Amino acid sequence: MLRGLIKGDNAFxxxxxxxxxxxxxxxxxxxxxTDQGRVRGDADIVFDGAPAHPSGAVRMFAGEDGTAWLETxxxxxxxxxxxxxxxxxxxxxxxxxxxxxxxxxFGPDGATVVGYEVTDVGGETAMVLAELxxxxxxxxxxxxxxxxxxxxxxxxVDHGVDVGEESREALERIPRPAPPAAPAQAQPAAPAQAxxxxxxxxxxxxxxxxxxQIRALAEAQTQARAQVHAQPQAPAQTQPQAPPAPRPDxxxxxxxxxxxxxxxxxxDNDVITVKDLPPGPVMVELAVKGGGYTGLWRLDxxxxxxxxxxxxxxKDFRGRVIASVPEHGRLRLRLEASxxxxxxxxxxxxxxxxxxxxxxxxxxxxxxxxxxxADVTFRFKGTSNFIVYLYRLAGHTDPTTLPSxxxxxxxxxxxxxxxxxxxxxxxxxxxxxxxxxxDARLKDVQPHSxxxxxxxPAKLPEPRGALGWLRRARR
Length: 475
Known about the structure:
- By secondary structure, the protein is mainly beta.
- The chain folds into three domains: 10-163, Sandwich (Lipoxygenase-1); 254-349, Jelly Rolls (Sandwich), CATH 2.60.120; 351-454, Jelly Rolls (Sandwich).
- It has five helices and 28 strands.
- The protein has helices at residues 151-158, 164-172, 203-208, 211-230, 467-470, and strands at 10-13, 17-23, 27-33, 45-46, 58-62, 68-73, 83-89, 102-106, 112-117, 126-135, 138-148, 262-267, 270-274, 280-288, 294-298, 310-312, 318-325, 331-336, 340-346, 352-353, 359-362, 365-369, 374-380, 385-392, 410-413, 416-422, 427-434, 437-443.
- Strand 5 and strand 6 (68-73) form a beta hairpin.
- The longest helix is centred in the middle third of the chain and has 20 residues, at 211-230.
- 38% of the residues are buried.
């Protein structure tokens, strides 16, 4: 049994790259919210259909035995984001039916930092399990355990997610029992100042109300809306509208096909085949448990191995490398490992973003630079090779290939600090070999020649809709 905090407790955690394990077999998401407790858009929702935040600060992947993992680089969280919520929901049944529901946070060294075993659970189907939040210049973890009687849709609306009209109507259709004989006496616990029918309840208000009060409020909202529709509407005033601001073409800052990530798990040596992928460069994310030798190669159509993508003896290896999917859409990989492993195939659009805040990680990785000219400083803490390549994407229009990187920008051995001048983005920064921990940050960043930084919200990829995350709430 996990020992740690109880509901409502909090504790400081290191401002570093943390791994959060959510057990057991629930659907997991992370919401990145502002001071107002609301997401800025669908891109601030990390779930299985969109497993990486555009900033690279939060990534999600599935583990063994029903465990979901969130990798949180707290130093990469954007300044506007003040809390990262860890959310759980069920497709069938209630959360009280989940055995061993818990949250555990691991530090960069793999040791447990803090844990929370969720025991106070009822008939809710959605819950904010925990949150990481800014406090006194650092970060803290809070055991929240806040369930929602109106399910995932209610949780989403409460945090500013645009759920669409269909889900809003479903939220209003809360089952209502027969009205009591004396409604006034049936609500002794009502707040002193009940919210108006037209307002959305906050989670704290929802906690203070009984289920009957929530149903009564939903009925009042429905009646108020019906009265508004029944009133004659004044003719709308025609107002001149400014032309919409031009949105950049995503191909101007990224490269490679866009697709739903694929995940394969297994144990020991194996040949991995992933079918029906669009051709072009992709990221291969590998996580191996335990020690021994780990090797990964892409197989060609003759089943011959090319140059190794991974070649290491590091324990508990994890990292991201680049491979190319051939025209027939079948990516075949040869993996040599001595324990359990997970392979995920991801679009390059899921690469983490370089910024002025330190980005801490471990192993090979793929990073995206989208600003003007800048310098990037790497601090590598391993004892073996550290190799970095730069791919200039500006003007590259073929999504099935990458431009030639030329010679390695860094090719050194052992722990070191290295500063590179970067050209104007978009630019892929590929840490092809990095067997050990490292951090990276930008400095002396100049404005982009377009007059707008390419990694500003307007320049990020079009947000993935929240509808995929909410599809279970609509059933």
